[in-house]
Each structure stands twice: as C-alpha cells, then as structure tokens.
Structure prediction request, 266 residues.
Amino acid sequence: MFAPYLDRWSLMSDGEPIITHSSRLLPVLWQDKPAMLKVAADIDERYGALLMQWWDGDGAAHVYAHEGDAVLLERATGKRSLLAMAMDGEDDEASRVLCRTAARLHAPRERPLPDPIPLTRWFRDLEPAAGKHGGTFADCSAIAKSLLADPRDLSVLHGDIHHGNILDFEERGWLAIDPKRLHGERGFDFANIFANEELPTITDPARFRRQLAIVSAEAGLEPQRLLQWIAAYSGLSAAWFLGDPNIEQAETALTVARIALAELAA
Prediction:
C-alpha cells in the first residue's frame, strides 16, 4: 500500500509500519527530513488530512503532500510526551499545553474550511444510547441537546484533543495530529482532556476538580459550561465504546460523566 507513494514522492523508508484500525503509517525520509506517510482506512482520516492542510502548519504538523487516501506529514521527533508528563507529576502543565495548542487551532483563518462536520452530526449516536440504556446516558444526552441547541464561540475543531494527539516537534513546539474536521462550539475540544482512557487518573474526582480549574482558566471557559461539555462528550464516548463493544472503557467514560454530573449538581 505504501509503494506507489514511496515512488511518487521520492521517499525512503525510515522505520517499521504502524497499523491502526483507521490508518496505515510508515516513518519515512522526504528531502532528508523526517516525515510520516499515512494512508487512511476510513473517511474520518481522509477528512482529517484536509483539515491538516487547512491549518498549514500553524498549531499542527505540516502537510508536505496529499493525494487521495495518502498524506505525507511532518514527523514529530521530540522525546517529550504529554501522557508521560501527566503520569509523572506534570499533569497540570500537560493540560495547559493541550489548552494552548487548542487555542492556536481555534484561531480564525482567512479562508473558510469547506464542508466541516457539524457537532450535531457527531453526536448522533448518543440519543439512541440514551433511549436504550437510560440512566447516565439519558442525563448526558439531555445536556448535549441543550448545548447543541445554543452553541457559543463557534470554531473549526480538532475533535480529538488528548495527550497522544499533541506531540513534541522540538523547535516547533507542541503540535496537533489526527484531527476529525468538526465545526461547533470550541468548548467541545477541551472535554477530551478529561476523558483520555490511557490516563488512569481520569476517574479520580480530586484530579478532575483540579484539572477543571486549570482548563477552564487556561481556555477562558465558564466551569459550568465546561462541565456540561465533559458530561456530553463522555456519554458519547461511552456510547461508541458500547458499540465496539468495549464494556470496560464504556464504564470508564460513564464514570467520568458521573463525576461531571455530580459537579454540575453541587
């Protein structure tokens, strides 16, 4: 699958392939620069490549070439990891980095992004889950409906901001990869900071409250509004996990949602 692009873009393999459920990746060298050749396996990844081009390296990795399912990206070579920071005493600073990167991505651009996915469409799986399971799903769905009916601060969104999608590009700083090409209220993009299932502390209420204060201040968001987005997003995430099915991760997402709901009721 990589061979046509290796020839076309004069690339040299520089590592082992990485296979995920949504894409195929190969570290390469392009004009003596470290790059990543990515071949999309689903439509969301193709849309994401178009958004990466639109950002043009401002807050996100540069796109060196793009054709069909394939995109050639600037490769992160820095040693720092936001997930490692969050798990090793620098959780607060990792959250601030995520917020600052999101702010760069949300900044207005001169030209509009064609055909972004509205958040109303992104949330389409939550209401059926609420109808089937009730309980926390129903609470999250009601909050999502209210948020989507009265959006504020509309922006092009990354859609999947978490510790593994903001990488260390050394002198270029922390930059985003793997966006979803969404459009809606910017507060949505900060909810996933609280929902990265790779971080064991996300279900700790004390950690949650500390990060709520940090993220709301850094992002300039009302804490109550941010709590609503966390509940809505966590309910949606749980619905997706149940559809996989992945019961354990669904329960983790629901736990985060319940923490947010409890804070809203406090």
User: Anything to note?
Assistant: DSSP finds ten helices and eleven strands in the chain. Residues 223-243 form the longest helix (21 residues).
